[in-house]
Structures are given as C-alpha cells and as structure tokens.
Amino acid sequence: MPASAAPPAVPDQEAIVKASSWVAPLRTEIARVLIGQTALVDRLLVALLTNGHVLLEGVPGIAKTLAVRTLAGTLKAKFQRIQFTPDLLPADVIGTMVYHPKDGTFTPRLGPIFANLVLADEINRAPAKVQSALLEAMQERQVTIGEHTHKLPDPFMVLATQNPIDQEGTYTLPEAQLDRFLLKVRVTYPTPVEERMVLDAMATSAPKLDVSQVTDTTAVSASRVVVNDLFMDEKIRDYIVALIHATRHPEALAPHLKLLIRCGASPRGTINLALAAKALAFLNGRNYVIPQDIKDLAPDILRHRILLSYEAEAEGVTTDDVVRTLLDKLPVP
After folding, report:
1. Can you tell me whether residue 76 is helix, strand or coil?
2. Can you tell me the distance from the alpha carbon of 215 to that of 49, in angstroms, rounded to the nearest whole number?
3. Which of 183, 192, 311, 325 has a C-alpha 20 to 30 A away from that of 256?
4. CATH number at residue 248
5. How far is C-alpha 234 from the geometric centre of its chain's CA atoms?
6. Same structural domain, 247 and 156
7. Would 12 be classed as within a structural domain?
C-alpha cells in the first residue's frame, strides 16, 4: 500500500450482520444432511471466504465427499468430482484438444476442473504428474489447453481428500505442493451420539441428501470484500509472526523441539493464518480478530507446513503436538 493511501475502513457491526446473513441458514441447511462435523464445515467456509483450497485427510466413509457436495448444493455452485486413480492422465483433469476430421480443426474440451467447487477425491492415489496438473491450476487459477489459456470460474475452490499415507496404493504429496493448500483438515470419526444420529438418518436405501439453495456465489464474493477489511490489532499480527517464527526457531519457547523440527512454516503460512483468522471472525459475527481465532486455526494452517525430523517420527511426535506445545508456551496478547 502506498504511504499516502489511507487504510480501508473497518466494517461496523451492522455491515457484518448484513454481509454474514447467509452464514447461519447455510450452517443449518448443511447440518440437516451432514451430522456433526461442524468444525469441518467452518473450515470449508473459511477457505471459501479467503479464496483458498482445502486438503481433507481421513479414512474412507466419514462424510468427506458428502460435506463438499452438500456445501455446493447450498450455494447453487457448479460442482465436479474427480476420482483420482493410478491410471488418470492430466488431460482427464484439465481437458484436451479434440480433433474434428471433417474440417481438420481442433477445439478445446474443458475438463472437470472448470467448476466452482472441485472435489479431488483421493488425490494421493494418482501419480505425481496428475497431482502437479491439478495443483498448478490451483495456483494459477487458469489452465492452458493447446495454445489457449482458459480462466477458471470465480469462486474456484479445490477440496482434495486424502487417505492416510500408511494405506496401500497411495503416493505422498510433495511438501512444495502441500503448501498451496490453505488448510489441511483431519476429519475424525463421529462421537457415539453423532453416530447414532447418522444411523437413524442414513440406514435406508434412499437417504435424504438433497439440500436447498441458501445463497449464491455472488453473496460469497461480496462477503470476501468485507472479510478483507476486518480489524486485526497490531498485537495479534505480532502474535501470528511470533508463532510462525517459533516453528523455525523453537528453542526460545521449547528447547526440546529444536531436534524434532526439520523445517518450519514459510511466510505463506503467516499470510494464510491472518486471512483465515479474519474469515473465522466473520463467520462468528465479529468485525475484529481475537487470539482464540489464531489458536483455533493454527493446527489446520500449520499441519502440512512443518516438516518433522526422523527423531520426531521415531518418538511418535506429530505436527499437532508441536503446534500445541508452541501455542501453550507463546504469550497470548
């Protein structure tokens, strides 16, 4: 921002209430089909409001696909699902040129990536060249087919699902590509109470999975503008920077972590944590960010950005353990 430019005005509470009027009805409509998983739904909305992408990790059968499909239905957004398999080709994702023998011409056939919400199901079952094609499109928000470049729709969000790496037939996503995801969300099993509710609702040959449209992509785009202007105190900004810095140099807060962290989070993690915190504040009806927003989102933002050492793996230490320790040790503003 130029030195002479005035900072954008912080939206008042009335503006927040107006801009977020679709949030509560959307949550209610999704909850009608998706039982539990409220944190997952909020993470999907955070990504939608910040123009980011989400990596969902969890075993099969815990409603990852249902969550994405239901969200698309409530937004009346174009939805596509791509099942990643070992024999998938990049052209199956982005599209290809089709030859017409009658007149000797080529025309582009756009792939399933041309949608508002794209579910890349089991992304770690496809080889690296296919993963790279998808992740490049995520970064550039456009794809080149033949000699022509085609812009992807706006909003455009990829929600990739991944089975745990210790399952057979999977390929590890490179760290550089993982960094392009705003969030990595671990989808867990439902509680016994939630699972009983799932049983009552879904144990039928024709479960009711249809949802009504609550809002549209235009309202989401308008909300993004409001989210960008939310207030973030200087102390909160310093708190974010201190947390990210601690992932690279943890010795000041927790000396025992120094041997457990091979590589800390990049500045992209700093930026994404700040953006996501604003979106979470918006979803909770506030025009300002609080430290709890940072604490709530830090594990999902940093889970795929901290590389652990062999010592950590040998001791069974996870990135969640590291982030939790740093949050406990770091002074809260």
Report:
1. coil
2. 14
3. 183
4. 1.10.8.80
5. 26
6. no
7. no
Q: Say which residues have a Cβ less than 8 Å from residue 329's Cβ, sequence separation at least 6.
A: 246, 253, 254
Contact 84, 120 (CB under 8 A): yes
E-strand ranges in 36-173 read: 54-57, 79-83, 95-100, 105-110, 117-121, 142-145, 148-151, 157-162
Domain that holds residue 304: 230-329
List residues bridging with 83 in a β-sheet. 121
CA distance 252 to 329: 10
- 138 with 71, same domain? yes
Reported residue count of the chain is 333
Number of domains, the chain: 2
Whether 157 and 282 share a structural domain: no
Do 54 and 189 lie in one domain? The reply is yes
How far does Cα 197 stand from its chain's mean position?
A: 27
| pLDDT of 48 over the 80 cut | yes
- Coil, strand or helix: which one is 288? strand
Mean pLDDT value across residues 263-273: 94
pLDDT recorded at residue 190: 84
For residue 176 the two structure tokens come to 């550089």
Domain annotation covers residue 186:
yes
Name the domain boundary from 191, 220, 249: 220
Calpha distance 252→316 (Å, rounded):
23
Highest mean pLDDT among 61-70, 158-167, 201-210, 222-231: 222-231
- pLDDT for residue 90 is more than 70: yes
Q: Which residues of 74-102 are buried (b: 16+ CB within 10 A; e: fewer)?
A: bbebebbbbebeeebebebbbbbeeeeee
| Statement to judge: residues 164 and 37 lie in one domain | yes
Q: Is residue 207 part of a domain?
A: no
Residue 117, pLDDT score: 92
Longest dimension (CA), the chain: 71
Inside any domain, residue 14: no
- The angle subtended at Cα 305 by Cα 303 and Cα 307, nearest 5°, is 95
Instruction: Look at residue 188 in the predicted model and tell me its pLDDT.
Output: 85
pTM (two decimals): 0.89
